Structure formats: structure tokens, C-alpha cells
Structures
1.
Amino acid sequence: MTERETWATRLGFILAAVGSAVGLGNIWQFPFKTATNGGAAFLVVYLLAAFLIGFPIILGEFAIGRRAKINAVEAFQRLKHPAWTIVGALGLFTGLWILSYYSVVGGWVLRYIGGSITAGYFGDPAMYFDSVSMGWDAIALHAVFMALTAGIVAFGVEDGIEKATKLMVPSIVVILVGLAVYAFTLDGAADAYSFYLTPDFTYLANNLGDVVPYAVGQAFFSLSLGMGAMITYASYVGRDDSLPADGGLITVLNTAVGVLAGFVVLPLLFAQFGQLPETAAGGGPGALFISVASAFADLGLLGRAAGAVFFFVVLIAALSSAISLLEVVTSYCVDRYGLSRPGVAFGVAGVLFLLGTLSAWNTAWLGWFDTLAYKVLLPASVLLGVVFVGWVYAPQAVDEIEAGSNLEWFGSVWIWSIRTFVLLGVVATLLLGVNSIYG
Ligand code: PHE
Ligand code: NA
């Protein structure tokens, strides 16, 4: 039996976890949702959701993973009882489900890096997106993205994931800052900032019932919760790390990158359109691949360079998230069945490629996969995890949270938060999500 892998350094763990958290959600959802849901007023709600609900849950996942020192499925069995592996299995399933279509979007991003360089989408971005988002083209690039993901995971925790994210995460931040500085020089930047962040508390007050569950659900997705990713990554962590400090830093950086992305995309859009175009209002594909793309098209030669750089950042953000999802199942198969890591990584990627061809064939499928993940699978999986740490495994979880942190009061506050408002927030999000689909 070979020894189980660990991170080489604490920074390596933090960067890998930030890489998981920082993804498409930060770039194509967060800025647009913020701008259209009350600006800084929405930001306040999102910060509350991320720090009061997301942060305690990420700590719960860290406590499970680090305590069990095993994959996210068997962790529950090792800590308590085989029956609880159902929680890990649901998380693993949810992650695979999400990865199947996340990779399709990754394929689009690859296409748009090329399309920037060749000015391929510069004529008519909307028509271009229609022609590349579905069908053989999308399937081929989805395969490439999946292969890149598997290629990194195949190299292992330290030599694959840690080395890759150590390069990727700082690059994401540096390049986004550079692009934000460039965007600052564009005409209309000031209007863009004020559109982005001017608080609209009236809007917020009138739409609390939609905005709050949305913010909480977004915090789950954005922090990569409920998919075994943070459990798995924490299982490679040493016991002298401070989990509250690491979790806090990850939550801060994830939010900061979302805010930063807004300082790139909104000035670009305002420079071309003088307002937020309708295709961007909801975030998602229309925002990135039609609206932002057309802003690059408008900039001519400079837009080709800026577009290539921008979509490259989106690519590495998506890749560093995708590898965390693939690692969940890979670590399970390696721990449990002693299978070869590269074999599992490429084998599972192959299966997910096939599942994802549905989403690549028709974006209606992609939307359906996403809705089910967002509104049902994710909150359900998060809820089970909260029940596990809050009630089934509470004393040991508190002990684990405090280990390495010398904050003796922290554990009791943390477990109290899990048992009260965190639980309430998760249950409400799940009920509202289910209701919005089936109600
Ligand atoms: N957190 C990533 C994002 O914001 C998505 C993701 C979800 C990654 C779950 C890994 C696990 O895009
Ligand atoms: Na995120």
C-alpha cells in the first residue's frame, strides 16, 4: 500500500481550494447578478450569505475531510457509520453531474480564445455563438476541455493539482487586475462602476424573496460546497493548519475575484453600449459569449488581444474548478479500489464526456442539468452535510475545527451557527428551489 498523497505546502492547499472556488460562477454570473439586483445592496446580501452561511459550511467540509483523511465518500463511513456514505455519494454524484456540463462551457471558452485571435466572432457574435454552442463543434471542444482536466488530475495531488493551481490562481488575479486597469481607461468606465455598485435598497426590499435564496445558492456553488470537492482537498491537509484561517481566506478571495471580474466586464460593456445590453442582463452565456464578445469585436485589433487574454483567464478559472470535481471521484476510486490514478481520471472523464454530449448537443439540456443541480442536488447535498456535522458528528467536528487554530471559543460559535441560521438558510434555499421548479 503506497502512502496517501498530501499537499506539499499550506499555500498549495489554499491555492487549490481557491482555484476550485474561483470559476465560471465568479465571472459570468456574479458581476451581472450584482449589477441587476441592487448593486452594492446585493453585494451586502451576498457577503452575508458567503460569510454567515457559506463559510461555516466550508469549515464543516474541511473538518470532515481532514479528520477522515480519506475520499469524500468513505469519509462518512470512517467517521461514523456506513449508512452515512449516502451523503458522500450524493455529493460525488452532484459533482459529476455538474462537471458534465461545466466542461461544455469550458469548450466554448476554448473556442472563444481561438475566435478572439482569428476575429472569428467579430462579425456577428450572436450568430457565431449559435453556431458554435451546439453540435459537433461544441462536442469536440468539450472533449478537449475534459482531456485537459483529466491530464492535470492524472499527475496527482502534488505534481498535478498543486503545481497547476499554483500557476493558475495567481495568473487569474494578476491578469484580471491588468484587464481592470485597462477597462478603467475606457469611455464610460465611471458610468459602469456606478451601474455596478450603486446600492438600490428599494429594489432589494421589494425582491428579498428572490434575491436572498439566489444569493445563498450562488454562495454554495461559488464556494464549491456540497460536491465533495472541499472534503477531498481537506483530506490532503496536515493537522497543524488553521482551518478557520484557511477557510476565511478562501471565502474572501473567492468574493474578491467576483467583484474584480465586474470591474473588467462592466466597463467593457458600457464602453460599447453605454448601458448593460439586454443579452447580458441575466449573466451566463449571453453575457459572456455575446455581449462581452461583441465589446471585444468593437475594439478591433486591440480587442483581439484583449479578448484572447480575457477568455484565457476564464479558461484557467474553469479548469482549476473542473479538476477539483474530477479529483473527488478519482480519490474515491484510488483509495477504495486501488485503481491507477491516470486510468480513473481519463476513464471517468470519458464517461462524463458522453453524458455532457447531451448538453453540447443542445443548450436546452445544459439548462436543465444546471437548474436541477442548482436548485435541488446542491442544496440537498449541502443540507445532509450540515446535519452530519451539526448533529451526528458534532463534538469531533468542533475539535477538528479548533485543532491547529488556537481559537478556543471558535468551535462552539461555529457549531451553534451550523445548528441555527445555517441550517435554516439551507432548508429555505432547498424548499424555495424545489418549489420554483415543481411548484
Ligand atoms: N465554484 C465554481 C464556480 O464558481 C464551480 C464549482 C462548483 C467548482 C463545484 C467545483 C465544484 O464556478
Ligand atoms: Na466561485
2.
Amino acid sequence: MTDHIETDVVIIGAGPVGLFAVFELGLLDIKCHLIDILPKAGGQCAELYPEKPIYDIPGFPMVTGQGLVDNLMAQIEPFHPTFHFNEMVESIETLGTPEAPLFRVRTAENGTTFTCKSVIIAAGGGSFQPKKPPIDNIEAYEGTGVFYAVRKMEMFRDKKVLIVGGGDSALDWTVNLQPIARRLTLLHRRDAFRAAPHTVEKMRALVAAGEMDLHLGQVSALKGEPPVLEGAVIRKDDGSEFTVDCDVMLPFFGLTMKLGPIAEWGLNLHENLIPVDTEKFETNVPGIFAIGDINTYPGKLKLILSGFHEGALAAQKVHRYVYPEKKLLFQYTTSSTSLQKKLGVA
Ligand code: FAD
């Protein structure tokens, strides 16, 4: 089913910078929807270093990656942004004029379209995408027999499931899918796992009880007439091979950041970054802004605090597109009753 949504602004990327932009836009009565390919908010902070301490967020002597994301989510709560997770923005079409911009934004997964007056690209280093195992012809089974994420567990009910990997995703999905799968097999290169110890223990208990299988080795080939997967050939360390029957294979080899479709949006690019001015953080297309790690300008520092500043200035220009007839008054949150009402504290 495809949906159509009308809003003031679409923010591409729900990393820390996209999240704080919601706050700055919200103070100016600008509504937004955020789209992220990940299943959760927080970008690099939540995906790459949730438990690591950050020491250079103004006002926080120390906060973890996830702690910062949690605080940002609490801070933007009064503005009720709508999140669209597990969706990658595929295209931006220009419908309006440079004076009165209007855009149609489309996502790849279920083709949701958005009409909006401005687009803020807060896409960091690009979209997080799954690392694929080096198996011949694996693409032919993608979406039918090979999946890199679990969007709906029910899809795997009564299936013969092969999970490949030794990290948290592989182990979490092993213990979660085992009860509904017809038979579940976990495959890893060696008998040591990087996942949380209690999840590894659960998996080992299931193996000991004969309720799932664990094999060591690597997938060397897939079997079955594409796109129907019937089995995976496993090569062991000693070079011997055997086949595991499976209807679906879920490789969890981690994520990598790729620029993705941004290159096709008609924007000027410089070494895979989007050049912007430092007054409004607008791109070469009026109405499309780029903030955070994805942009470039003289003196750019890829720091979270830079992205916060960029979002605040971009919001000022967005206001002119969304409310061309309204004059913007500069106000402090400390002393403005009108801002405090928006924040629900007055
Ligand atoms: P990101 O956090 O990269 O978020 C961008 C989001 O956009 C991602 O979730 C991505 O999936 C999504 N996206 C991209 N393209 C699309 C698309 N087409 N469709 C849908 N979604 C899309 N910075 C500091 O200031 N202090 C530190 O101490 C610090 N420590 C760090 C430690 C590590 C290990 C790392 C890796 C980085 C660190 N950084 C630090 C850098 C900081 O994390 C980044 O500057 C920050 O995350 C940038 O935020 P962002 O919102 O611009 O992008």
C-alpha cells in the first residue's frame, strides 16, 4: 500500500542532527516528518557507539551515544514529529519554483510519498546498508529467500531459517525466531560469539536441548532455482562441504555507510558531500538544505554541535518558505511565553 503525506518539511535522516532540527523547526511552528533507513532514531550515536561516552556536547560533561539520543527524543517530544523507520528516501522531485519551493519525496520500500515545502537532508555519512556476504548470485534470492533485516517476524513462521553471523543481531534473531521457525540453524565461522553473553547462553541451551542447530563454517553457494531458495552449501575450515536445507537465509554481517541515492537528487556534490552556504545551510536547490555530517563548507567540523547550529540557521530560512507572509521574531526560550507554550511549560 502506498501512502501520501503532506507536511511542511521532510527531514532525511533521524541522527542527532535531524532530531535537533525538529526542535528548531518546532519552535517556529513548522511541522515535519523524519525518514530513516534504520529501525530506530539516533544515527551513528545509536548504531555505532550507543554505550561510548561523548565529552563535547555543550552542557553535558559526559553523555553516552544512546543517552544523547534519548535526551534529544525527550526534547522534541512536544512537537510530535512523525518517524518513518526502515524506509530509504529514493527520490526528490522538484514541483515548485525557487521562490515558492515544493517537493515530492519518495521512499523505496513501500513507495510512501510526501509533498513538502522544504527538505532537510541530515543523512550523515549516507544510509546505513547491510554488508553482504560474498556469495555468487546472492542478489537473485534477495527479498524472497535472502533478507538482511527482520521487518516482520511472521514472514518467517514455519520456515526453515538459516541465520549467519556471530554478533548481537544474529544471536538476538536466533533466539527470537527459533520458537516460530520450522527449524532454525545458526552458522558462524568459529565457536566464539561477539553477542551479549546471556543471549549466547540461551542459544547454546536451545542447541543442547536439540531445538535448533549450530554449525561452524561459511556459506559457499546457494541452492534452488532463483528466486526460490532451497539450501545453502556450507564449507567447513577443513574444506569439506555439506548442505543445510533452508527456505530463508538471514546474513547479519554488520552495516556499512553508503551515500546511496543522494547522488541522484540533482544536487551539487563535492567528494560525496553536499556543499552549502554558511548563512542558511541551503544547497544549490532552493528549499533543499543539508546539515550535519553530510554537508561541506570552508572550515566544516564533523561534530554533533556543528550540526545543531546548522539546524538552527536552516530553520530560519525554512520559515520563510513555509510562512512567506509572516515576519520572524527572534526570541529566547528562557523568556518567551509563546515559545514556552509550544514547549508545554507555560
Ligand atoms: P548520522 O548520525 O550519520 O545520521 C544520519 C542518518 O541518516 C542515519 O541514521 C542514516 O541511516 C540516515 N540516512 C542516510 N541516507 C538516508 C536515506 N537516503 N534515506 C533514509 N535515511 C537515510 N561527534 C562528536 O561531536 N563528538 C564525539 O565524541 C563523537 N564521537 C564519535 C565516535 C564514533 C565511534 C563515531 C563513529 C562518530 C563520532 N562522532 C562524534 C561523530 C558524530 O557521531 C557525527 O558527527 C553525528 O552522528 C552526525 O550526525 P548526523 O545526524 O549528521 O548523521
